[in-house]
Write a structure and sequence with these properties.
Blueprint (H helix, E strand, L loop, with lengths): L2 H8 L3 H9 L6 E2 L5 E2 L3 H14 L4 H13 L4 H33 L12
Antiparallel strand pairs: 1-2
Amino acid sequence: MRIGELAQRASVSVRALRYYEEQGLLLSTRSPSGQRHYGEPAVDRVQLIQHLYSAGLTSKTIADLLPCVDAKVSTPESRARLTFERDRIDAQIAELTQARDKLDAMIALTGTPASGCAYV
């Protein structure tokens, strides 16, 4: 499939796909006229890349981990890296949960609004 179709099917921009290629995260073949072509597995690959980015992983970390994903192997190094990233995400979740709890407490407050409140 061509780059536009992959972008549409994976719900990403063409620019993102080009960036993934620049970072070595996604491979394409080229037609004689230079157009990028991707196989069907590229849709799943792009969605995986998107999930890893949304979890806060950097392109370098993703590039380091994808060979293990492709080979369907887990090394002590890849497990350690994944554990580190999971623990980092858990810490972010805890911080966000605390922030949400504080917002919930403020929402639950009743009574007369304090003076100087911008949203009275």
